[in-house]
Amino acid sequence: MGTIIPRKRKDGSIGYTALVRIKKAGKVVHSESETFDREQAAKIWMKGREAELAKPGALTKVPDPTLSEVIDQYNREKQKTHGKTKTQVLNTIKEAALAKKRCSEIGSPELVAFAQSLKVQPQTRGNYMSHLGAIFTVARPAWGYPLDTQAMEDAQIVLKKLGLVSKSKERTRRPTLDELNQLMTHYEVVSLKRPASLPMQRLILFAIFSTRRQEEICRVTSADLERPAMQLVVRDMKNPGEKIGNDVRTTLTPEALQLIDTQPETTGCIWPYNAESVSTSFTRACALLGIDDLHFHDLRHDGISRLFELGWTIPQVAAVSGHRSWQSLKRYTHLQHTGDRFDKYQDYPWLERVLRVVTK
C-alpha cells in the first residue's frame, strides 16, 4: 500500500510525495517515491506503480546492486573528474558496512546509523551526507536502481534535528598589521640565512592583494596571465559544485600584478612552489611567533574584506575573488569601514620594500 505525504517547500508551496514500498516477511524489498505539485497526480502515479509492481516477476526485473557498485558506476559515468575531497569521501563510504547493502535495503534508519558511525565533526558529517545524497539523486532516474531519495531526505532531517550535521562555520579571522609585520620580519631573516627558501614575503602579499587560495597561487602559469587586461585565469577554481574544469577569469589588482613581476620570467608556473609547503611554512612561523589561530587562507579573507573597505561594489570584488554569488560574499561586507575607502595597506612599507628589493 502506498502513502501520500504532503511537504511544505522552501518557497511555501506544497509538494505531494507518493511513496511506494513493497514488503516481504516484514522486510522492505523495494521502495520508491516521486513528488508532484498536485495530490491527484501523486495518487495516479502511486496506483499505477502499485499495479506494475504487482505483476508477476516485476520486482525480480528491478536491478538491485550494492551501494558500493552504484558508487563505482557513478564514478565511471560522471564526465567531470571529482575533486580530492569528494574522491576521499566516496572511497570512505565504499569501505563502510552501508556500502555492502543492496539499494533496496537502505532506508533512513540505515543512513542515520551510518552518519552516527562517522567519528568526525558535524560539518564534515554533513559533507559526507551531501556527497552520498548526490548518488541517491541520480541512481533511480539514470539507472533504475531502487535507492530511495525520500529516505535520504528523511535521514537528513533526523540528523539535523539531532545536531549530528551542521553547516561549516564562517571563518572571519583576519591578520592584524602587527601580526603581518612579525611574519614579514621573520621571513626576511629566513631569506637572508637561506636564500633558496620559499619567498614567503611575496607569497603572503600576493595572497592578500590577489585574494587567491594557496593552491591557486601555486598553479597559475604565465599562459594564464593576460597582462594588458590585468586578468588571470584560475584553473579548476574551488566551488560548491565541481572544481575540476571550473576555469575562472579574474581581475588582478595593481599590487598583485606588481608582485607577479617580481617573479622570474617563465613559461610554466608563475609561483612554482608546493602549496602544502607554503601552508606548512606559514603555520610553523605563526607557532614560532606566538600568533594564534591564523591560517594562510585567512589572507584571502583579508584581501577580499579590504576591497569592500575601499568601497568596491559586489561585482567588482567578485571579479577579483572569483565568487559567483552575492550570498557567498555577504560575510565580507559586515565591516566597520565599508564604503569609507579605508585602506589597511595604504603606503604599506613591506609591500614597497619587497617590490624595491626584488627586481626582475
UniProtKB/TrEMBL annotation:
The keyword DNA-binding applies. Signal peptide: none annotated. Keywords: DNA integration, DNA recombination, DNA-binding. This is Tyrosine-type recombinase/integrase. It comes from the Bacteria. InterPro entries: DNA_brk_join_enz, Integrase-like_cat_sf, Integrase_catalytic, Tyrosine_recombinase_XerCD. SUPFAM superfamilies: DNA breaking-rejoining enzymes. It holds the Pfam family Phage_integrase. Belongs to the 'phage' integrase family. Residues 170-347 form the Tyr recombinase domain.
